[in-house]
Design goal:
Number of helices: 21
Largest sheet: 11 strands, antiparallel
Low-confidence stretches: 1-15
Strand content: 15-25%
Radius of gyration: 28 Å
Helix content: 10-25%
Number of strands: 38
Structural class: alpha+beta
Length: 863
């Protein structure tokens, strides 16, 4: 297959060499070098045209036959915000797999779907946001503090684990073709960025050189040097008094000169405006833009760079200086094959056959399995016996599809919530579901409004709403057709309810008749725009291009009363879905949950957090939360109270967490016999959870973050010093340590040894250990290798992860595991010296978690 591709490429290049006269401009000739092509193109552009191409939504230059291009796309854990896509576990869940091979395969699957979506969009003449080939993923910031709302987007708290996972993800995205990039991956946010979210546009960070080089930069360095990442996104915050997107030492000296980065740098969105508006490091947009370009930022997500024309005219920057970022930007577009004949680009044939494949569904399930972390299993209560007759499924996260996704997500064809997973696994079992409580104050779990509460007219004869379907976005003219829709929860993907048009709008109208009186949260979820008119007044209105959200208002409704309702929806040019939702917030849902538990043999509680509580710069007005961040790390009070009341009933209780960051579940750890961490597990989370709870899968994931007992154990959120943060510098006892996770079996570490007791510069020793499964079921063990540090009192890490392997071991089987030990693994950053390792004795620690009692020690001497 590879040979055939090379032959085809050579023939294609030869053909276009012989017929180069057909090209209007030399830059269109694929036989020229990339440098020759880009230089020719830039030489033909006016100043205004040059500036226009340095903004994320670059317009077409028709006279040069340059099509428009929107650089903004996302694929954090699947192609995001562009309709049908395989949704893998949120990034923090991917980190919990501790599996670099699986990370690579996930990257490949995502890039397959991304290329397919791009090709489909081109075939339809679409070149808008979320339809290009430059993806602003992965987020490799260090999750230094569990209060950070965006921590779920990262690979956890450890620089080495983050870097190793990022390398494989980036390689999977960018492909291995010798001529063309499959996608452009973007490592973000460079650098030293991890909240607080409300202050991110003006925050100033100053950390020690030790923390900078030991914690905040290593994953970026690995992404550049080992993964050859093609793009870097600079952060909002200021570092050492200089905004990251105009920080010359950061972008030019460290990134380009020291690490040899060759790709382009894109600003975080509207970060250039922050330079003058919030950091106050420039007087206006023109000066801020000139400073950013001079420092090494090539592309502006935002609009500030349009002022570069003024900056040139005012002498703040020379026009020829714009050639440097333009060179980098157009190099990437050429590497992506955007100016070459499709038959030369191996990915141009990708189509709908690459979307939502059975292989990708299996991969999402494998990832959901491997991300599960068993935190507690007292008296081996798990796995549960399958002969249970009645099962109570309780909790606000039991049947909330949104909680599967986290953020920056696509939309799968068959999402499986925990409740749905259990129902599919046991279709004949008596499963009683009750949410029991809200996720947090005023954060509700919603349901579709059932057809028996909807009527086409006031005689209440026919259930449903009358849907009028228009072939335009503005409800103009007569509807193309009308019909009665029983319930309003439609998912058209990138298609349409119309046969010949993706441009459509729908108006549903009729009457809502509740069966019970009380206070309701009434609203909808959809993309891109919708409006609900209730009793002739606008109830909610929503419009965005960046993803769907639930929008609702609280209203009082009386049982049996007719309420006039109208829902107007505008189809998206990328993805169309709409849901009419409600929930009765006055009902005694807690008592119903307690009664369900009393009737059951076992209660499974699905609790945790929600992407409506934690995330990016959010408007959340809930006790314990602020702007997407958390003020404490406890389980929300509504859930903690319900958990305690259910425990008092005396039935066996299993707690399953769905969340994106650590929770201080101290009471649960002391009282609940079994706790399973499932993160935001993606489209297959419900299937994976059900199989794990009943023994058809043996959990083997490990924590990529420390679970603290309280925020009182860690420094203030705004303190970026690493002292008392993460397993490397934390001197107290955590609730659950980094690298921790249980199994339904047990593993024993035998005969750890080195093939030589000392090494010199340039030499390596081989560490060998036998890992035996001494239990009765097959399982997977994550073998972790740490180097003992000097300790925080000596301005050094306590220990540092330097290697890991996830290995499947059958019951009774032993496997010999090997790690190479060299001088580079022993090095750490030392003020005034950089990275160095002094001669002496070093402790190599190998075992099942970062906890000392889980580690075996072998000494090695560095000569």
């Amino acid at each position: 297959m590879i040979k055939k591709f090379f032959i085809t490429t050579i023939i294609a290049i030869s053909f276009y060499t012989e017929t180069s006269a057909q090209f209007k401009f030399p830059f269109q000739n694929p036989n020229l070098t990339i440098n020759e092509r880009v230089s020719d193109l830039i030489s033909r552009m006016t100043l205004e045209e040059k500036v226009s191409q340095m903004i994320y939504n670059a317009p077409a230059i028709e006279r040069l036959e340059i099509p428009e291009y929107n650089w903004w796309n996302e694929c954090l854990h699947g192609v995001a915000r562009n309709g049908l896509a395989t949704v893998f576990p949120q990034a923090i869940g991917l980190a919990a797999m501790w599996d670099i091979d699986l990370m690579y395969r996930i990257g490949v699957a995502i890039s397959d779907e991304a290329r397919a979506k791009h090709n489909i969009a081109l075939s339809q003449g679409k070149r808008g946001i979320y339809q290009g080939l430059t993806f602003w993923s992965p987020n490799i910031n260090i999750f230094r503090d569990p209060r950070w709302g965006r921590g779920m987007e990262t690979y956890g708290e450890d620089p080495y684990l983050t870097g190793q996972l990022a390398i494989q993800f980036i390689k999977g995205l960018q492909g291995n073709d010798p001529r063309y990039l499959k996608l452009v991956a973007t490592a973000k946010h460079f650098a030293v960025h991890s909240g607080p979210e409300p202050e991110r546009h003006s925050f100033e960070v100053s950390v020690s050189d030790y923390d900078l080089w030991e914690t905040y930069l290593p994953a970026f360095k690995m992404s550049v040097i080992d993964a050859k990442v093609e793009a870097i996104m600079c952060a909002y915050n200021s570092l050492y008094g200089n905004a990251c997107c105009s920080n010359d030492p950061l972008l030019n000296i460290i990134l380009r000169k020291e690490w040899g980065f060759k790709g382009h740098v894109v600003s975080d969105c509207w970060a250039i405006a922050d330079i003058w508006q919030h950091h106050k490091q420039a007087k206006d947009a023109a000066e801020a833009s000139a400073k950013a370009v001079k420092a090494g930022t090539d592309l502006n997500c935002g609009v500030s760079f349009k002022h570069l024309v003024k900056a040139v005219n005012d002498g703040l920057i020379r026009e020829e200086e714009l050639s440097i970022p333009l060179q980098r930007l157009f190099e990437d577009r050429i590497k992506l094959g955007m100016f070459d004949p499709p038959e030369m680009v191996p990915y141009s044939s990708y189509n709908r056959k690459q979307l939502d494949t059975q292989e990708n569904k299996k991969l999402a399930l494998e990832a959901a399995y491997k991300s599960l972390v068993l935190l507690k299993n007292e008296n081996n209560i798990l796995p549960l016996k399958k002969d249970i007759n009645t099962l109570a499924v309780i909790g606000p996260n039991a049947n909330d599809e949104e909680v599967l996704y986290g953020n920056y997500n696509g939309y799968p064809s068959d999402p499986v919530t925990p409740l749905e997973g259990l129902k599919r696994k046991f279709p004949d079992k008596n499963i009683i579901y009750e949410p029991g409580c809200s996720i947090a104050e005023n954060i509700y779990s919603f349901n579709f409004i059932p057809s028996n509460c909807l009527f086409t007219d006031n005689d209440k004869i026919q259930n449903g709403l009358i849907g009028e379907y228009f072939d335009n976005l503005d409800f103009n003219g007569e509807p193309l057709f009308s019909r009665v829709d029983k319930e309003i929860h439609f998912n058209w993907g990138d298609g349409s309810p119309l046969e010949n048009s993706n441009q459509f709008s729908v108006r549903w109208s009729g009457y809502l008749v509740p069966e019970k009186s009380g206070k309701y949260a009434l609203g909808a979820s959809g993309l891109d725009g919708f409006q609900i008119t209730f009793e002739d007044s606008i109830l909610v209105k929503f419009e965005t291009t960046h993803g769907a959200h639930k929008v609702y208002k609280l209203i009082e409704l009386n049982a049996g009363q007719l309420y006039n309702i109208k829902l107007e929806f505008k189809g998206s040019n990328r993805y169309s879905f709409i849901q009419l939702l409600w929930t009765n917030v006055d009902e005694n849902i807690e008592e119903r949950a307690l009664e369900a538990v009393r009737k059951s043999d076992v209660a499974i509680l699905f609790m945790g957090l929600s992407p409506r509580l934690e995330g990016e710069e959010m408007d959340v007005k809930v006790d314990g939360f602020r702007g997407g961040d958390r003020l404490n790390i406890d389980l929300p009070k509504s859930q903690e109270n319900l958990l305690k009341k259910i425990y008092e009933i005396g039935k066996p209780v299993i707690l399953v967490l769905l969340n994106g960051s650590a929770l201080s579940i101290n009471w649960a750890d002391q009282n609940i016999p079994a706790i399973l961490e499932s993160w935001y597990g993606g489209q297959a989370a419900g299937t994976a959870i059900a199989d794990a709870l009943f023994g058809d899968y043996n959990p083997g994931g490990r924590l990529p973050i420390t679970f603290y007992k309280s925020v009182d154990q860690i420094p203030p959120f705004i303190d970026y010093s690493m002292k008392e943060r993460t397993y490397r510098y934390f001197t107290q006892e955590p609730l659950y340590p980094f690298g921790y996770g249980l199994s339904y079996t047990s593993f024993q570490y035998l005969n750890p040894s080195l093939n030589q007791s000392s090494i010199s510069d340039g030499e390596s020793a081989i560490l060998s250990v036998d890992v035996k499964n001494i239990g009765k079921v097959d399982g997977e063990e994550v073998i972790q290798l740490y180097i003992r540090g000097r300790g925080v009192d000596n301005n050094s890490a306590i220990k540092t992860l330097k290697g890991f392997q996830r290995v499947h071991i059958k019951a009774g089987e032993a496997k010999n595991i090997k790690f190479e030990i060299n001088k580079a693994m022993l090095e750490e950053f030392k003020e005034g010296k950089g990275f160095a390792a002094d001669p002496g004795v070093y402790q190599i620690m190998i075992g099942s978690s970062s906890r000392d009692e889980d580690l075996n020690i072998v000494d090695v001497v560095l000569n």
